[in-house]
Amino acid sequence: MIQVNEYFDGKVKSLSLKNTQGNFTIGVLTKGTYEFSTTTKEWMTLTAGKWEIELPNSSRKAFGINETCDIPSGITFTVYALEDSAYLCKYE
């Protein structure tokens, strides 16, 4: 079953699904700054737009289209959406 998720007063929305290949979300973010926390390892791939991601004890890093950020479990990190953007996220 596909689940609809909405965060930050509707500025971030995603659809999630689970299949034999794992757990996934595909979503969109409007331009802005968003702080997320993880409970599992995640891989976030930018599919459209422009963003930078800041992990703990690290500086902001820009990711290009189809580039993936490896995000550890149990952290809080920040996404700076420099324009409206879309992503694919895989969860371990």
Automatic annotation (TrEMBL):
GO cellular component: cytosol
Top-level taxon: Bacteria
InterPro entries linked: Ppnp, RmlC-like_jellyroll, RmlC_Cupin_sf
Keywords annotated in UniProt: Glycosyltransferase, Transferase
Gene3D superfamilies: Jelly Rolls
Pfam families given in the database record: Ppnp
Example GO molecular function: pyrimidine-nucleoside phosphorylase activity
Protein name according to UniProt: Uncharacterized protein
Protein source organism: Neotamlana sedimentorum
